[in-house]
Amino acid sequence: EKYFIFNSQTIPLVKEVNSLNNNLSLINESDNNKDDNNKKPKQENKKHTYVKVLVDDPFNNRDIILKVTKKQKGVYVWETLDGKHMYVGHSINLYNRISSYFMPSILNTKARRVLRYFNKYGFSNSKLTIYIMKDTSNLEEVVGLEQHFIDTLKPNLNVDLVASSSGYHEPMSQEIRDKLRKQRGTPVYMYNVKDFTLIYVFDSKQQAYSLINIHHKTLNDCLNLGNIYLDTFFYSLDIIEESPETNLLDLDRIKTLVSEKRNVYDVKHPAAKSILAEFKDEPKKNLEFNSLNSLAKHLKGDRQVIRGYLKGDKPGYYRGKWKFTYKI
Q1: Would you say 215 and 86 are in contact if contact means Cβ atoms under 8 Å apart?
Q2: Residue 25: how many CB atoms within 10 A of its CB?
Q3: Domains in the chain, please, with CATH?
Q4: Residues 94 and 100 sit within 8 Å (Cβ to Cβ)
Q5: What distance in Å separates the CA atoms of residue 9 and residue 263, rounded to the nearest whole number?
Q6: Cβ–Cβ contacts within 10 Å for residue 112, how many?
Q7: What is the Cβ-side half-sphere exposure of residue 84, based on CA atoms within 13 angstroms?
Q8: Which of 24, 129, 234, 246 has the CA that lies 20 to 30 A from 262?
Q9: DSSP conformation class of 153
Q10: Alpha-carbon distance values, 229 to 22, 145, 235 (Å)
Q11: Where is the composition biased (Basic and acidic residues) (predicted)?
Q12: 104 falls in which pLDDT band (50, 70, 90)?
């Protein structure tokens, strides 16, 4: 175990992230370099290997979360600063999964106890601990580590204290069972970001490329950075247990829906307005962007949230730092 504490105001991030990545490399290489003759027989209570990272003020330090969790798998623990409330979860795509908690559309579902808590109290009184596992870890091992922390920490915001590889903490519908049984690769789950309803399951990324003509870089950015595709679809390698319901559409309907959203998106964005991003009390750090997309990409933020600040629907400064206005 290696333990890192990140706080963007007090710790030189690049140096620490490099150190973190070096430790992850050492963990992964240690498995590859073992002499077969020296391997010990598997034990039932195998010790888990991971790098432990604590991120203070996670809502305002999402850039740190991205740097340490992109393309990583493991377990995450939300905890209030007083230690009274806690939630344990797992993911094979940590940044995508963790970033979904910050999305108003999923918070507003209030589908689970943890969402109801964050929806009511926000993230200002919380911290995030991330346990990053070897990149060779399989889903069973990731879920095993989650179960270890559930048993150890006894988190009160977890409704079910039994970790599940399916992502569901209730009986899975036969429809989902039949779909998962046919899969050969790593499935890609497609959600409507408006209410986080699961609407389609692709057998693999390759199938998504071919069926809905999504570019591989675009899909990877959606999966790795939490980007919302066509302002409508959220893609995940994990089943989002907070999803309030499942409404799987047939392939023809999915193709039609994506085509309709793409047409609207293509019409809307070429005429995008320039945006001035003013940094609080430091005009020298002001930036100008030619579209909402480029702004959201630079700040690694959610377009819907940023749009709320642009329209004045959300008061104050974005992440406590930025004020946005359209340039005339």
Answers
A1: no
A2: 11
A3: 50-153 (3.40.1440.10), 174-264 (no CATH), 275-326 (no CATH)
A4: no
A5: 43
A6: 19
A7: 3
A8: 246
A9: H
A10: 33, 31, 8
A11: 31-47
A12: confident
